[in-house]
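Q: My labmate handed me this sequence with no annotations at all. I'd like to see what the chain might look like in three dimensions before we decide whether it's worth expressing. Could you predict it?
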Amino acid sequence: MTIYNKDSRLSEAVMAQPSLISVIDRLGVTIGVGDESIDSICRKQGIDVAFFLSVVNTFLDEQYFPQNSRDTFSLAKTIDYLEKTDFYYLHALLPNIDRHFSSLMSRSGMNNNLSMLQRFYGEASAQLRDCIQYDTQILYPSLREGFAPEDYLEHAGMHSEVEEKLHDLLYFFVAHLHGDYDHNLCVAVITAVFSLQKDIRQNNRIRRRILIPMIGGKFETPQC
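A: Here is what I predict for the chain of 224 residues:
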């Protein structure tokens, strides 16, 4: 996997890895970047280039771990990125899957097991929404106030459960889907679920490898 640096052209990185479009948007960069380097773009946008590169490379490469991560990933920057990620899930990816699934159900026959798959997706979607609610109402405000909630480790495990459920859903589609259904819409649902599952997997790694150690080193959880 290519590791990008400040002299890399952002357009080349995005063309090689289109999934970066949503990532750089959360970091404050929209497409239409010309042939400029990552360093040049970040300087113009007032973005910390080290943080930008660390998020991009961590997102793309499961083996990547930034040097001096505690300095690069400040708590404030990390929370801001994850907060924008939650917003992206809630207002872009989940509604997109909902629309595709609704169209798939309405344009497919009755002789299939799509209802079971839709229910399973609904459970995963509801759990992800619960995770986002905890993030936005409890975790991030608490960290900004200077303390860690007692159950933040349990909460991190719930994010991993959502990732696993979406993986299982994809497997059910691939291995166990049967009956009459609209093939094009089915592919659209699978593609959208895959995009969400991949994004969650990559950002769970940021939570596990960056945020949780940062919380453990910075705060003590309140004692009852």
